[in-house]
């Protein structure tokens, strides 16, 4: 009998099969994926000196131009900043402008209504900001109107019902009066609160007012009386 020696066969590596269904990829497949990702081109570097956006006058916005043509004197100016268009609207035309933009230009959604306080500005202390959104093309348009201190502006609750609480918040925080509002009362603080917290002259430490809590001690609209120097 002949003693035959068997020749050793080379070790076969398992061939990875494509992943099917909810199966998890094998270690070899995961390694191949990492290799592919490593060969992807690097991302471009950050700008060394980024250029900040600037305010630019707008003359070619179709919605602003349509508002100009429809309501004479409504648009006082228009500008663009960081891709957002703002139309400065006359205070006595704000309701007409909002209704036209909603009904004729498709801005069905009032995203927000807020205010900015400029206590030293001569032309008027407050800016009211109206953020409008159109669902058809996801365009947003911002309206801005100026309201002097101790003067009022017409409510837009007849155009957007959601403006009800927004205008109440602006009244509460800034003290702006909205003519024609169905229920203009405070919404974040209580009736009898002393002052408007988002005005820039409101004390940073706040005001201790207990008018609604202790009506028998503090007068309506006032907090604890501050004793003057030398007073009793």
Element layout with pairings:
Blueprint: H1 27-38, E1 56-57, H2 62-70, E2 75-81, E3 84-89, H3 94-103, E4 109-117, E5 126-134, E6 139-147, E7 152-154, H4 163-174, E8 177-179
Describe it for me?
It is a single chain. This protein has 232 residues and is an alpha/beta fold. It has a domain at 56-160: NADH:ubiquinone oxidoreductase Nqo5 subunit (Beta Polymerase, domain 2). Helix content is 19%, strand content 21%. The protein is built from four helices and eight strands. It has helices at residues 27-38, 62-70, 94-103, 163-174, and strands at 56-57, 75-81, 84-89, 109-117, 126-134, 139-147, 152-154, 177-179. The strands form two sheets. Strands 1-2-3-6-5-4 form a six-stranded mixed beta sheet. The chain has a two-stranded parallel sheet with strand order 7-8. It is extended.
Structural class: alpha/beta
Low-confidence stretches: none
Task: State the order of secondary-structure elements, H for helix, E for strand.
Answer: HEHEEHEEEEHE
| Cα shape | extended
Labels describing this entry:
232 residues; alpha/beta; Beta Polymerase, domain 2; two-stranded parallel sheet; 19% helix; 21% strand; extended
Could you give a quick summary of the protein structure above?
The chain has helices at 27-38, 62-70, 94-103, 163-174; strands spanning 56-57, 75-81, 84-89, 109-117, 126-134, 139-147, 152-154, 177-179.
């Amino acid at each position: 009998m002949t003693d035959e020696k068997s020749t050793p066969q080379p070790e076969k590596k398992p061939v990875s099969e494509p992943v099917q269904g909810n199966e998890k990829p094998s270690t070899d497949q995961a390694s191949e994926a990492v290799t592919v990702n490593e060969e992807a081109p690097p991302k471009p570097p950050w700008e060394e000196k980024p250029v900040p956006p600037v305010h630019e006058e707008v003359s070619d916005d179709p919605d602003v131009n349509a508002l100009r043509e429809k309501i004479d004197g409504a648009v006082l100016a228009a500008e663009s900043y960081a891709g957002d268009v703002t139309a400065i609207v006359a205070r006595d035309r704000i309701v007409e402008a909002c209704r036209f933009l909603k009904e004729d230009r498709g801005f069905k959604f009032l995203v927000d209504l807020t205010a900015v306080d400029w206590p030293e500005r001569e032309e008027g202390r407050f800016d009211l900001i109206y953020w409008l959104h159109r669902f058809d093309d996801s365009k947003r348009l911002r309206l801005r109107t100026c309201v002097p201190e101790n003067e009022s502006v017409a409510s837009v609750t007849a155009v957007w019902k959601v403006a009800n609480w927004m205008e109440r918040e602006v009244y509460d925080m800034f003290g702006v009066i909205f003519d024609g509002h169905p229920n203009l009362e405070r919404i974040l603080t209580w009736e009898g609160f002393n002052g408007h917290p988002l005005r820039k002259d409101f004390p940073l430490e706040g005001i201790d007012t207990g008018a609604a809590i202790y009506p028998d001690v503090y007068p309506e609209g006032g907090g604890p009386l501050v004793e003057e120097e030398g007073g009793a």
